[in-house]
Amino acid sequence: MSSSEEKGPLPVTPEKEVPPPQFTHGGDAINQHRDQEDFWTRNGLNLKSFQRRGDGASIDSLDRTMKTRHLHMIAIGGSIGAGFFVGSGKALATGGPATLLIDFSIIGIMMFNTVYALGELAVMFPVSGGFYTYSTRFIDPSWGFAMGWNYVMQWSIVLPLELTVCGITIQYWTKDVNVAVWITVFMFAIIFVNVFGTLGYAEEEFWSSVLKLGATVVFMIIAVVLVCGGGPEGSAYDEYSGGKLWQDPGAFANGFRGFCSVFVTAAFSFSGTELVGLAAAEARNPVKSLPGAIKQVFWRITLFYILGLTFIGLLVRHDDDRLLGGDNPYINVDASPFVLVGLDAKLYGYDSFMNVIILVSVLSIGVSSVYGGSRTLTALSQQGYAPKIFSYIDRSGRPLISVLFVCAFGPLAYVNLSTSGVVVFDWLLALSGLAALFTWGSICLAHIRFRKAWARQGHTLDEIPFKAAGGVYGSYLGLLLVILVLIAQLFVAICPVGGGFNDVEGFFKSYLALPVVIVFWIGGFIWKRTGWLRTDQIDVDTGRRELPWDEINEYRERLAQMPAWKRVLHTVFV
């Protein structure tokens, strides 16, 4: 087989009225540059490391030390945090166990298709620093501007939220020390991890994900025993219960309003799943490591969310007053159903163990917020969508100014200490709760538009090295689910769970993300004066990654010789 046959037909670049961003891939050069630096400079441990990198300092100058094991663990456990361990308690109280399971499953299906679409695009087009650029390239540059700034804002707001949860988690053991002290300690811990740049983030995520994965497996083993009545004598689980709580107090709570309300908690819990696509740009060989990492998302959805929350629904009553968590259940670890199970089972010490896991999880999300926000801001700067100062990349490959910008939002955590702090916290949560949905919908739409332009310009699916499991139909399903969830949340914003109709303040606390995105979109249009790209304007050839087609074709041949069940296993799960 000739080289041209292996790589498919020669690309034909269409005439373009609006040129897309130009992407380059300099992984080998960047790794070589890094290897030339001494140990202390490479790892950001001396003053020289803070100097501007002298190789043009493009976004492709970011550090490329992430390994396959890092990407796999980021995919399977990287974004598990307060939304899952603590916020699921509020979701259970609001909608009941059946709603909890159904809503998280729907968001899980959405994420499965979204991450696969992202994986297909990321393997084809190496984008360092921000997948918002797929919106710029395949949808509308103004919308890409909005999605980039929306993503930066989302993570900048999540940082103080997670710091607040860290501080209050410590109060489970002692209230003698002011929460502000703990917020400060954890803020410096997050900054310390980010001093080590990409490698610091990758190692922290790897080990924290290992811990979260292990704790979840332990929880499910204990949960099986408790459901079967194997709890200590005199505990709430000393006799077989099975699905009793689905009958009394019932599988659903608060009717249709409760069902719609849980979606925002589920979306908040899944936020960060897409980070594996962002992190792949800083891996040494993303073509090999990213597809395997993308396939781990299935196990996260089924193992962490679906199985874990199924057991929660079997063990914790949805009318338990402790789930309400006082003023704000997102920051009260006493309201965590995982902690309540340990208390009710009289497993002394297990509640503290789960709080340690919650603390590690929340700290991990804080580190991820700095990583995701800073990389996207740097990409925005270098595409001309943000001030040029944010394009600064130092000699160890860190986007230094962007990291400092995101970290500057951390002190917002202190406002929760005031009497009106809960109100401020609610507004911050309103900004971040739905923001991820717009990102996920844009990824699905970008994939749909890419496939349409790809076919229009004479390319075949065989030229795509890693294809989304559900194809373009999976992206249509993902986009449809995003739209339905946004409609459901609009309904809840107007008709809250408590009954009646919301006032203006209540509406915007539930739906603030939409007007913010619209403002960013209008701002992008005013700045760039560009609109929706027609299919023949989309360039699918510029910046495509050079791919090892010999290896890809050899793998496809091996796959074709496997039995049908094994092909499905390797295509979707392995």
From TrEMBL:
Highest taxon in the source lineage: Eukaryota
Localization of this protein: Membrane
InterPro entries (alphabetical): AA-permease/SLC12A_dom, Amino_acid_permease_CS, APC_YAT
Region (Disordered): 1-30
Membrane topology qualifier: Multi-pass membrane protein
Residue ranges crossing the lipid bilayer per the database entry: 71-92, 104-127, 148-173, 179-201, 213-232, 252-276, 297-316, 353-373, 397-415, 427-450, 471-494, 506-527
Coiled coil residues, start to end: none
Biased composition (Basic and acidic residues): 1-18
This protein's record includes keyword Magnesium: no
UniProt cross-references to Pfam families, sorted A to Z: AA_permease
Residues covered by the Amino acid permease/ SLC12A domain: 70-531
Keyword terms, alphabetized: Amino-acid transport, Membrane, Transmembrane, Transmembrane helix, Transport
PANTHER family for this protein: AMINO ACID PERMEASE, AMINO ACID TRANSPORTER (EUROFUNG)
Protein name: Amino-acid permease inda1
Source organism (scientific name): Podospora pseudoanserina
Organism ancestry: Eukaryota, Fungi, Dikarya, Ascomycota, Pezizomycotina
